[in-house]
Amino acid sequence: MTLAAWITWTVFNVVLLPLNLVFLRTAVFILTIASLVQLVEMFLKKSYRTLYNALGIYLPLITTNCAILGITFLNIDNKFNLLNSTVFAIGTGFGFTLVIIVFAAIRERLDMAPINPSLKGYPISFIAAGLMALAFLGFGGLFGLT
User: Fold this and answer.
1) pTM of the model
2) Phi/psi of residue 17, nearest 5 degrees
């Protein structure tokens, strides 16, 4: 996320904005992120073979991760400078990691819990995701962000 934020911020402010090509930002950002993921994949394949093998098919799927594209758009829409973009991307990356870990822990607990068979699997997962969304929505009210 941080690398994508740096590169897309630079591309937007150095190339697209001065040339008045802002309307191309979606296509340019997608191509930039896809290229960046390919470079990271090649680097991991060359330098960290075991990590590359462990990630397997999931590494190229990062390209389609909407969170990364969302960060780049939010950086531009909020008119963040490079430092703010970096801090925002790092914070968002940590937040995304936290949410993924929490969801994985909840899924593990739900798999072991004595739940009615009609709710097993996706139904209880969607219910848990909805409750988590409400919980995280409550954090906005704590800091006056509503």
Assistant:
1) 0.67
2) -65, -50
